Amino acid sequence: MAAARADHKALTKERTDRRVALGAEGNGKKDFMWSEASKNNTDKGGMSDMEIKMNSEALIVAGSETTATCLSATAHLLGKNPEIMKTVLEEVRPRYTSEDQITIKTTTDLIYMQACIEESLRMFPPAVVSPTRLSPGDFVGGYYIPKNTKVHLHQHASYRSPGNWHRPDDYRPERFLPKDHPLYDASFAKDNKKSFNPFSFGPANCIGKNLAYAELRLIMARLLWRFDLLPQPGSEAWMDGMRAYTLWDKPPLMMKFANAEH
Question: Does Heme appear among the keywords (predicted)?
Fold first, then answer.
């Protein structure tokens, strides 16, 4: 773990220094570095070099690893459930005649695919535990939590609890469909969706939530349109026994991507 952290810090420093050296104009895009480089120094409300590097460390991890985890989980779970895979392909493939038509804007109404993504986040939340919160001194579930006690929510346990979810260990995207959808299943109507907050909750929730959903829709739709995702022998138990820290220590996921026929 220490070696991995050192590698991450070195990569962040190299990428950050390279981008800062380009100045405010950079590559012509008004990104995070453009904003900070435009301010020049902390006297104008900008960040110090150390603050830029520390925030870049978080941006690189939060903007890549968590999204990659959800994409991997969705591909894996769809591969294990061929009927669900068939349904989502029937939604995605007839809608587009070329991959160029698949954009962030044109994927917003892929309702069943979005439900598949939500169900993947429930069964395999990229952040295993929620960020730390300090108790104000109150009762939770009949237990008094003293003031200033550090508390976490274990999302993986909450999302697999039969007290919150009907058939919690089954991959059933229908639970996230609106009532007017033809595949809506009323047996999931009593699911406690208020317990589902994979991006945390409140004013300190994930600032990249909307970007993450846009990336997930775009990448997943393009993968499903372009390829047949075929699980390979030995991949069936990919999730079993996986170690979790703040994030998951994922082993390789072996799948074959075969060109789809259009």
Answer: yes
